[in-house]
Amino acid sequence: MKLNDLLDGFITFSNSNLKGVVDKTITGLALNSQSVVSGSVFIALAGSKQHGLSYIDQAVAKGAIAVIFDPAGGGKQMAEQLNYLPLIEVDNLNLKLGEIASRYYGNPSRFITVIGITGTNGKTSCSQFLSQMLEECGIIGTLGWGESDKLNKTFNTTPDALENQRILAELLTNKKKVVAMEVSSHGLVQNRVNGVIFKGAVFTNISQDHLDYHGTMEAYLQAKLTLLNKPGLTFVVVNLDDVYSDQIIEAIPEGVAIWGISTQGKTKAAYECVNAENILHTVNGIEFDIRWQNAMEHIKIPIFGDFNSENILAVLAVMLAMGISMPDAINKLQLVRPIKGRMERFGGDDGNPLIFVDYAHTPDALNKVLSSLRKHCLKNLWLVFGCGGNRDKGKRSQMGRIAEHWADHIIVTDDNPRFENSLYIVKDILSGFSASNDGTYKTSVEVIQNRALAIQNAIARASNSDCIVVAGKGHESYQEINGVQQAFSDAQVVIDALKMRAG
Fold first, then answer.
1. Domain 3-91 adopts which CATH fold?
2. Which fold, 344-502?
3. C-alpha torsion sign, points 437, 440, 441, 442
């Protein structure tokens, strides 16, 4: 693609500085100067800490032929000091980058069905389940991008606008017909999905998270609702049991089909509603009746937790909205496979306790995990958890209260302390527990800051009728301490601890 074709409509090419460049063929677009190759255009955004133009020397050294830059954030002043490379000024570049990238990659979302999944919890499970259920379905999300059993790493739940378009183009080249994309609140506020055409959207739930970034729940909700303003939307799936469901429905544009899901018998007369009834929790998973229109089907699935009933309903609603028949959808859903780090099961046999590794790192998620596993647990419920450092501190005491309410034995440990003193994090969590007059806690709670030792301790002490939840990190393969990501896997520690128990 030539530069003038890429930027047609975004700028006027009257600047003499651009002569001899606008008709050059571009070999790539790069946000990171390290990714520049000969013939690339370097894109310099106005960052919160540093402007992209600070890295122009590296981009030039690697062969950039031009720079597209945002004049905001000191960009205009910096550009005035540079005269050795064509500099193309684009106002509000952060807003327009998605469209520019989409054009460069051939507008891939026009030719592939993109389902955007947002909400506080359940995004990863729903996207992964959808990828298993829909033919030729790719994924973009927390666990990576690609196919469910062959994922490439992503650094954010929702990649940046340029990377999103590159991934969509590659998925299209790989013959994918559908993409299930996790859409985070950060991604929406930072315009990472601009330029993406969404056919469907799923709102799993809204509860407290990322208030360190958004400030208030209202701002957080409004960030989520901007997904409804994206072009191409034909249907939206809404969890009617969520306290914010009415606000979500109010924001849905006219002409967009609304599908409601509920495990509590809620319906809306004007919409398609899919309900789960008679939910049973067994040692092999969950089963329930599904009611839609005049049809009733029974389903058994090898996954655990009430919230997974909601996730399955959301996936089913998407399938129905896309024209898959109810019997065919049910038959496929019964073959669903658990997701790594999402209620991932270990033990439960050979005299071992039933153990679950889960990503639950918000009050709502932890509450749902523990309340659900109470129904699977024959005897005592153990919990090993902590909270991340340099993040929303307000949720720490809430998670302590939730832990105290549901669990019989609690071990508070380190999560990802990042740059924060982990003792302060532990203190914040413990402030949510009820203390007796003598200063002791009313619930069995102890602190073992070494996360591996905490997990090993719980597994060594639990009986074969107990359940253990290791919460907060799920699929993560590291623990971040003082800015360093050290190799660490909750699942691997559990596997090793079960071997120690057996030995």
1. 3.40.1390
2. Protein-Tyrosine Phosphatase; Chain A (3.90.190)
3. negative
At residue 275, what is the residue type?
N
The per-residue pLDDT for range 380-396, each reduced to its tens digit, is 999 999 999 998 899 99
For the chain, the structural domain boundaries read 3-91, 106-333, 344-502
Q: pLDDT tens digits for 457-471?
A: 999 999 999 999 999
pLDDT band at 16 (very low <50, low <70, confident <90, very high): very low
**Nearest one of 54, 27, 24, 50 to 38, comparing CA atoms:** 27
Is the domain spanning 106-333 CATH 3.40.50.720? The answer is no
Identical fold between 106-333 and 344-502: no
pTM > 0.70: yes or no: yes
| 3-class secondary-structure state, position 437 | coil
Whether residue 237 contacts residue 200, with contact meaning beta carbons closer than 8 Å, is answered with yes
β-pair type (354-358, 344-347): antiparallel
Nearest to 391 by CA among 181, 243, 186: 186
Residue 53 phi/psi, 5-degree rounding, is -65, -15
In this predicted structure, what is the pLDDT of residue 340?
A: 87
What is the CA 128 to chain-centroid distance, rounded? Answer: 11
Measured distance CA(441)–CA(99) in Å, rounded: 56
